[in-house]
Fold this protein.
Amino acid sequence: MYYKVLKENKVVDILKNINYIKYQEKHNLLLLCNIQEAEAILSSDGMHGWHIEGLYNFPPDNYEYKIVEITKPEYEELSEER
């Protein structure tokens, strides 16, 4: 499955899959976790988290991004634009 991440209706990232993360404040790290503990989903570059509806608060960035499932051709088109 493929997804696009939106902020104010603008594409900020595209994903091939969803990896759930939580923030560890003590060491300033993003840790992979299961959906029950998740605060965000991992960005495609692995450096950021996108907080989405239904997850716990994400201290580094609590803006609520929207995630939309897309087709492989749309993913490839968006990849070329980046």
About this structure: The CA atoms of residues 10 and 55 lie 21 Å apart. Helices lie at 72-81.
